[in-house]
Design brief:
disordered N terminus; single chain; 5-stranded mixed sheet
């Protein structure tokens, strides 16, 4: 791992932006249509490297940025850990027992875990007479902090040093021969699936409306999933990800299912414990590099992966067992070293899936400006969703001038909508953009956010109110 801060060559400072300006007309209209007052909105637009913003509205207000907070976590990780950083999952043999030791791999997927077990099979493992011991000691205890009552949704899965496949099941539905077919991956032992779905006409709803229409119901003990409603033929193939199992039950079921396919016999049990002094290392599985993990986190706003990364910062920089407070200290020290004033910044879990996290537009702007000059800029920018192309921006701004010309991280909670990233204008100049709305109607204000991106693309110009000159809003050398 790179030595802490060794890549940091420049210090940056950001002074408070007190200038205000009326948003562009289409942005104001979008806010009015959504019934979101401008007092509930922060906007900051600034050309990369410029000394003052082209637009600043309530930029010093401390707000909940939603998943835009992932910009802080992922940029910090790229600089502090390095783009080539990889997580390790180690397998030990201790007598008759097999020990799995995790270090928080955010993407130990179904396929990756299959490869891990396949490697053990290739090393001669044909029968295991003892137990499988899970060593999760790299992360400290993390209390469940559900953002809502959706206890079976994967985004509410608690961080785990040995998190496998997000602890999730993928239910796949598709119409065939007048019926609704269903399969689940992975199909774990003891899982009961009831499919009483009936084909129907009509449009295919999204989100919660889809789950309500198919009347999805779940329970954990014993694991059971039932679907008893209607499935519109227009839905085609759809899937639904659900986290039903206790962590130990999930890993045990997955191992039994995969080893049965490989011909490995195991009749033992799963239990937790540390790697003992007499344990012998059999195999080490390495994750994808951090640069790829960061793409998955930002492109698809993966909350569980972001939380795993956040605790990894704590473990690598503060030692195990990793705790959220240590990650917050590490990021605070990093920001201070870079000269970014962030006294307002409050990070709870690093994902933005929180009611407590707060940031100012000025702080996020300083971060984006600093990132634009960083050695990890290529990896950081490549991780952001591209307007009208991929990730959480793939369905927005099609046919507009800004399509393909904006790398934007999005944020959405029940009372929050936010964006942060970069827009390339028609003259080839790159601008950093931050916009945050905290209001019960904020989720309905997408048109206002899209209008801001289009305004920047078509040629934002630096301007200041007639009555007040904005202070320098760009990071600068001391």
């Amino acid at each position: 791992m790179p030595r802490l801060f060794k890549t940091f060559l420049l210090l940056f400072a950001l002074t408070s932006v007190r200038a205000t300006a009326a948003p562009p007309d289409m942005v104001s209209k979008g806010l009015r249509d959504a019934r979101v007052p401008q007092a509930s909105v922060s906007i900051l637009v600034q050309e990369v490297g410029a000394r003052r913003p082209s637009l600043a509205l309530n930029a010093d207000a401390s707000r909940n940025p939603g998943s835009v907070m992932k910009l802080v976590t992922t940029y910090a990780a790229l600089e502090l850990l390095g783009p080539a950083y990889r997580w390790k999952t180690e397998v030990y043999r201790d007598g008759e027992d097999l020990i799995l030791k995790g270090t928080g791999d955010p993407k130990l997927s179904y396929e990756s875990f299959w490869m891990l077990l396949r490697n053990l099979r290739g090393r001669g493992l044909r029968e295991l007479r003892g137990d499988i011991v899970l060593d999760r000691s790299y992360f400290g205890p993390v209390s469940p902090d559900l953002i809502d009552n959706e206890v079976f949704r994967p985004y509410n899965v608690t961080p785990d040093a040995l998190l496998v496949n997000f602890r999730s099941l993928r239910f796949v539905f598709y119409p065939e021969d007048g019926k609704v077919r269903l399969f689940v991956e992975p199909h774990l032992p003891e899982l009961e699936v009831i499919n009483s779905l009936k084909i129907s006409d009509g449009a295919c709803p999204e989100g919660r409306a889809f789950r309500d229409l198919i009347q999805a119901s779940f329970q954990s003990k014993p694991p059971r999933a039932a679907f008893t409603g209607f499935y519109p033929v227009g839905c085609g193939e759809r899937d639904l990800n659900v986290a039903l199992h206790h962590p130990d039950d999930y890993i045990a079921g997955l191992i039994r299912a995969l080893w049965a396919e490989m011909g490995v016999q195991w009749q033992g049990r799963i239990r937790e414990g540390p790697v003992g002094p007499n344990a012998r290392l059999l195999y080490t599985h390495e994750s994808e590099p951090l640069a790829q993990i960061v793409r998955d986190i930002n492109k698809f706003s993966n909350n569980v992966m972001a939380r795993q990364l956040y605790l990894t910062l704590a473990g690598e920089l503060g030692g195990a067992p990793a705790q959220p407070e240590a990650a917050a200290r590490a990021i605070s020290q990093w920001l201070t070293f870079k000269g970014i004033a962030a006294e307002d910044l409050r990070i709870e879990n690093g994902s933005g899936l929180s009611r407590l996290e707060r940031a100012r537009a000025t702080t996020l702007m300083a971060l984006l400006q600093a990132a634009s000059k960083s050695p990890v800029m290529p990896e950081f920018m490549a991780s952001l969703p591209v307007a009208a192309a991929d990730g959480t921006m793939r369905k927005r701004l099609h046919g507009e001038a800004v399509a393909g010309n904006a790398h934007i991280k999005t944020g959405l909670l029940s009372d929050t909508r936010a964006i942060g990233g970069y827009v390339l204008d028609r003259s080839g100049r790159r601008h950093a953009v931050v916009m945050i709305a905290n209001h019960p109607n904020a989720p309905q204000a997408e048109a206002a956010f899209d209008a801001l991106l289009q305004w920047v693309r078509t040629g934002a110009r630096a301007r200041a109110p007639a009555t007040e000159s904005p202070r320098d809003a760009s990071p600068r050398r001391p």
